[in-house]
User: Fold these one by one.
Assistant:
Number 1:
Amino acid sequence: MSLAELICPAGTPAALRTAVDAGADAVYCGFQDATNARNFPGLNFTPDELADAVVYAHAKGTKVLLALNTYPPAGKVDLWRQAADTGARLGVDAFIVADMGVADYIAQTHPQVRLHLSVQAAASSPEAIRYYCERFGVKRVVLPRILTIPEIKQVRKDIPCEIETFIFGNHGLMVEGRCSLTNYLTGQSTNMDGVCSPASDVEYKRDADGTMSSQLAGFTIDCFGPDEKAGYPTICKGRYTAPHRPDAYYAFEEPVSLNLSRLLPELIDAGVHAFKIEGRQRSKSYVRGVVTAFRHAVDDIRAGRPADMANLVALTEGQKQTQGAFETKKWR
Amino acid sequence: MAVTDMTKLTLGPIAYHWSAEERRDFYARIADEAPVDEVYLGEVICSKRAPFHEPDLPDTIARLERAGKTVVLSSLAEVMLKRERKATADLAEMDAPEIEINNAAGLYARGDRPHRIGPFMNAYNEATIAWMARQGASHVCLPAELPGEAIAIAAKAARDLGLGVEVQVFGRASLAVSARCYHARAHGRTKDNCQFVCEDDADGMPLCTTDERVILRVNGIQTQSESYVDLLPEMPQLASVGVTHLRLMPQAVDMVAVAQVFRDALDEKSDSRDAEQALKDICGDVAFSNGFYHGQAGYRRIALTTAS
């Protein structure tokens, strides 16, 4: 049986301590700049905060993984290198990377620190994963959320590194690291700036008839009736019309969140080493609730007890849930 | 001599599911009439489409080569299924000098044999380009969203390493790829039983906001910009910073005429305002954009201030 480590989001120092206290095996976090894919206002760590966080986490046996998982545009590579140098100096346990230049720099300069391949690298085949393992010494791959469990099981047999999969939280639809939708509408890039549908470009507009439209940079991403709860305008979760679809429909995906709690035993059986909980942008209480519930679930499964998942269902705040690609190929 | 004299025009791979017959006719005209130097062939978006047009590939290659074009074979952007892995490996292992790779699975199979880096490989910066050059890359196509300042630095680094550098100057920009087929989804189907509905949309399927602004185009698993990228006015800048190849993406318009407009502009046979008007006449109602190049929202059209 695999270790089934629980990898938890730490958007702030307070969230990090909360996740550590709730039983995270590892936390992941980033600096307050474009070097990570959650470069949102009010989130992330200064170098001093990260130093304290590493001490706090290590004292409780929790690992700290530093996300350097964006793509530096030419001319700005030094920012990513400095972030790696700082992380290494502060004793982080692994770097989560996507860009080949960043991976190469770390492999050369900080070979003692583990490299994890970010989902942003979009390595979705054994050959792609082996490329990163053999060239950069990657020890773990975060798999894109597009494979079924039997496919994950097969991949596991064909690669020389550990597998981490997302189990809970926001459900990305596009191949990560290959999406410029946000940049197309806002001028801020997911890959280069670490932003996705940035809050600074979001507006909610209520019409006279009570309908509410959620907009991104002036583009209507979705429209809600007076009794509907207005959702955040993420481009790939909006409603649009098409020639065959005169009534607005979710062209990419409904605003559902991923919840694989019921599939945990199968994922462990498939050889997944680590379960990742999405949500560095979420509150401390959310982190406490989700991490605590998954801690119990994983411990129960590993001890051969039936796990109680009811708490996890409650955590999704009434949002629709999906098992995404993990359960069936029909998702595609 | 103009700095653009040595610049090569390329024709990117067809992103859409054009029928075998349409493709044969299209490449016959390109071979005979289009002033492009290099042509990329092969299915980059959906592995299910490949069997329809692969049988024609040898003839198409021969036809284009007889016309003096360099032919490059492009690999799939998204590689997950067995058939996609096999197609990628088969292509990468071909004993051909010019292969464009769009997925790390292709890099793995190609090893250190010479290859080109495709636009889906995320060659965003000089460190990544240097790494790729050490692994055998001879040429790199930069991501469509890279702004001009970064293009200049990336191009210089690539040129110093002896690499060709390519930038898309015409056609819809690829904004995203997915494991899910959005064409099938629009028709209430899944990727496995899609019945190739994407064939109905030769220039992609428009997606419109509820307040009736067309913003995106669906092409199977790919999402593209509604606007056509048009960097006609920026071409002298691109050439002057060391970009060696300018890519035209095939759209469902008269691509021979498009290529002629770009070639004439490169050869300084046309005035830039006339060239812009000619392009508009060829492409009809479509919006043009250059926002990515100028570091702004991609859909925007930024007017170049005349050099003083």
Number 2:
Amino acid sequence: MEPASRLDHNGQLTLQEFPYIIQWREDRCTRCGRCTAVCPQQAIEPAVFAQRLVHSDSVTPMPSTVRKVSHGIRQVNDIDRYCTGCGMCSLVCPNMAIAPHYNPHHKFLFHKNLGGTPYKRGGRRNDPSPSTLDKLKFTRISMLTDPALDAGRHEFYIRTLLGRIPSPDKLPLKATGKRLIVKDGHFVPPVREIFPIRIGSMSIGALSPHMWEGLAMGITYLNEVEGIPVVMCSGEGGMPLRLLRSRFLKYFIPQIASGYFGWDEIIHALPDMVEDPCAIEIKYGQGAKPGDGGLLMSYKVLKLIAGIRGVPMHIDLASPPTHQTKYSIEEAVAKMIQSMSMAWGFRVPVYPKISGTKTAQAVLNNLARNPYAAALCIDGEDGGTGAAYNVSMDKMGHPIASNIRDCYLDLVKQGKQNELPLIAAGGMGKAGNLAANAAAMIMLGASAVDIGKYIMQTAAGCLGDEYNRCNLCNTGKCPRGITTQNPRLYRRLDPDKVAERVVEVFKSAEIELKKIFAPMGRSTQLPIGMSDGLSVGDKAMAERLKIDYAC
Amino acid sequence: MCRLSAITSSTYFSPMENILALETMKEGHDGSGLGLVMKDLGGPFEDLKSYPILSGTCSNKGLDMLDDYMQQAGFRIKYNWEPKIKRTAGMEIEPRDHYFARAYQYPSPYEPKAQVEWERLLLETRMDLRRMGEKDNSLFVFSFYPDCLTLKEVGDPLQLSEFFGLDDLSLQAKVILAQGRQNTNYAIYLYACHPFFIQGYCTMTNGENTAFVPIREYLTSREFSGYTGYNSDSEVFAHILHFAHRQLKYPLTYYKDIITPLKDEEILDRPDGKALSLLKKSLRPLCIDGPNMVIGFVPDGTIFMLQDSKKLRPGVVGGAAGKYALMSEMCGLDRAVPQRDRPADIFPSKYDMVMVTPNAQEVHVWNQLHG
């Protein structure tokens, strides 16, 4: 009979409570120790096993037992050292002896609040079901009445406009004879022509220096060499001084958020700027954690980050949930837009970014009446983040599809659908279908879409997914070196390789967009609001989005 | 693909010329309808130039409704034209109770008013009548404007010409647009039939407008009551023309710059490039993204043809001073103006807008690249 003390494990968790369970094969393991060294969570550790082996050396069975001590790998059952399923152990294992497996019966969320601290993580909403965008189909196919175009040979205009576009009656034009001329002395808002898929706001700080540099090099190459005008938002936290003073600044959108990090440096660099930035984004909200502020943990605030952001090293950098100096929408939006516009002499489009919400139309209508508002970016619930409470990520926010659609149709009602571009973010390419998701959003009314997680996954092999895999961005332990400031981790990432992948991703997205638009007969203009091109096999969804139902 | 036949002449001619051109272009075509818009009218309307003409078709009930409405609005009939319907064996046309083109006298307060005032009255009246008739299809009204007449019906264009008695050549005009309908995309519905007319502007189109929905949404949000209907994706062409030329007061050639904009690098070389660049962005939703060929006229009698850059729809213009024809097929041009300098025929390129001046005096090819 076992002593009672051996059974008293009730205070501990079984591995069945954990989201990922390590499968380790003793017969393949060489005990090299790479897996335990690489595990960002220390979820596995070397272990000593006492084994009782029965064997017989005789020609007739003469069983005897031998006690043997062996060494191997054991998964710990400490909730703070849970296996995230990142799979780095498999990646480094020379013998395919170890791999994490998803456990659909886990009870992780029941236990991940030790010390009264709710679960915090990075990543995205843990909802692996197909997004609305992935359910939309392109069903208006040109064929005989309207011959389809050849995506390979035909000229396509896959560009969009970022900036306030005056209605024709507000243009300073006058007819002289048979020609129109521009009247002098009239302000014409700045407008940029860009690729309709942008890299959304991810800061230096949230991203490692290698990751951010890789993205920046990638988009610069796309602009300078490939002629694809992809732009990128800095995220909150400033930009390297060398970049601010370079001619490449025009491919970047500096973001100002509630912490104003990096803006002292940006403003001081103004006299040395040889180009205007593409635009300025004012962040009021983020889809992954609506109404929540940001926090860059002290261990990420190293010399480089502190320098760019203009803060001391090794302190937590908290961005408040709102811009503290503002108290109303007029203050928060109108004056910020005005101030930012003035800083660059009204030559740079300035627009706000908000999280997806039922109140987006209120913001929209405020912007529609503000002639200096250059766009509205809405970040839906499937947006990602470097750090947030799990409850914010999983349960807060608004799906992007209907949010953008409502806003677009609201603009249509006002006749301003071409005046204020809508930018959709959050969940683009969630299942890998970037071009299809982008095209669907455009046909619902967006002028452009932003990507974040998608580019991290495609360009740097981010391991996160909707099954809570990895999602360690907030810990500074990113095993890929994407969201960490630890040089030992981010040196795993080659910025040149990231840049190469960025270029490949956008070139391929452009081809895929052509493959969508060509059979639909659209080539001369981006089909913004071409909702008759879309259908969905869900009647409620069709009704809500005001598109066709097809089955 | 619809067959399009437009003729402009310095002398009055019968729409039979357009219809016979349509007939020669008919091969491979189902001929499921006919639309005719005539401008600068001769025959019985020659002396009625200043009176607005309401064109349409209706049932007996619709006629009562029409008479009641017009009487209450203060319009008095000056002249009523109804075709003498001829029906012969083999004719596959379902006749309606009435086809009409009525010249009205304005309600007395309007007669001395400015053009913009009476144009608004005529448009609002037509829209009211359209709304009333749409409920039960008892009344269709196609145009209500001075010196313009519209006829539309389902059936073979040549049979329809006989049905309407156009072959007696009494009905005449100096500008006539005719469309032989190819029914492919929409149910046969009179309001889906080209040419479309609004306040002196008229267009008919070949091809399919893939950008129809965003354009429709843009036009309907202009707060102009005439921008409605859209039973055909081609109706937007007439309304864009009206919007650009009448509402925005842009010179006519900018119609092409709006619906088929140049690329940015091409705009740089235009003398008006700066204005064009602003205009392209501002009117971005009105880019048609064809393939389409458009024939139309504006109130001064200028008639034009243009195409989008895909140029998958043919078009040809030919003739001589005094008579020009704009056709979707070469054989139609041969039928309409057989005696002409054939080498001078114009096959517009994607950059061209071919315009024939009023009274068919001259033809100009305006090149978009040079402005």
